[in-house]
């Protein structure tokens, strides 16, 4: 089950509620003439009838309606948001949605925690509102400042249904129209999440919005370094191979074909310029370490160990963070190995690793249940302890 109220609680903590409450009271006072929208054929008779009934119901009656007609409630809210653009009415609908979520929260476990099916309807309703909101550039900044990108990635990583996938990726696509947002999104590792969904996608509209999102990240980013980082992340996540497979299919949608062509060209150019350090850096930033050739290349470590210190030890901090939070045995084994290689090839590396807390993290994994993790942690600890590498190398 997904607890929608957790999202509401996070919003309450981030926004000055006295200001919001005053605005909400003002919005509630401006009642909507739903009949006029019905006569103008902007909403259906079913939605008009339901929203009028729901609006007039007393608080306890609304609880009954929500428990018996929750799906219809979510469907009506979504339809109204999709077909009405008048700002005052949209504000009114959003306030109704917010009030409804608060009622569910206050109702306790029986109605506050809903089934996965019903919960999905509510999340889709909220996502529909977000899709509309993020069309406005100013709202994009407000959303990311409220840590909204983490909400999006959390939903995507939660194996949600294809409709919610589409809505969340649509939001990323909207954010990526702004160069500053492209810069900001770098820290959220969105490419691995999108590439995983692309690999499993069976819905054309999900494929289309992922490709459009990837294109925006490459096309709208103002800084060359940012574009290169996104391109390398896509290459690391095997997007190039997926694009080649998609290119073999015939799509009626020209947008898909154009985006595939654009991405193939840009990623192909990046592959030509790809150095072993770029490859390593991209893999590390993806958080998906595997035994790719660079990890065990003596030449790579001899030439690049010192580069892990760049940008205030950015890559080393990622490495130690993986040792702390990852539960993937392969990631832990490779990370421990890399810490050992870094200190072996960089004379002052031992002190740096200790300052970052990496030594203790590696030592903690010496008792890991996985044999490969234990083995690589033990080797790394030996390298952290030994000062004369010629002795170690010749034993």
UniProtKB/TrEMBL annotation:
Query: One of this protein's Pfam families, by short name?
Result: V-ATPase_H_N
Stored InterPro entries? ARM-like, ARM-type_fold, ATPase_V1-cplx_hsu, ATPase_V1-cplx_hsu_C, ATPase_V1-cplx_hsu_C_sf
Tell me if Ion transport is a UniProt keyword of this record: yes
Q: GO molecular function of the protein, one example?
A: proton-transporting ATPase activity, rotational mechanism
Major subcellular site: membrane
Q: Which UniProt keywords apply?
A: Hydrogen ion transport, Ion transport, Transport
- Is Transport among the key words of this record? yes
Q: Name the GO cellular-component terms.
A: clathrin-coated vesicle membrane; lysosomal membrane; vacuolar proton-transporting V-type ATPase, V1 domain
Domain named ATPase V1 complex subunit H C-terminal: which ranges? 274-389
Coiled-coil-forming residues are none
Tell me its family: Belongs to the V-ATPase H subunit family.
Q: What is this protein called?
A: V-type proton ATPase subunit H
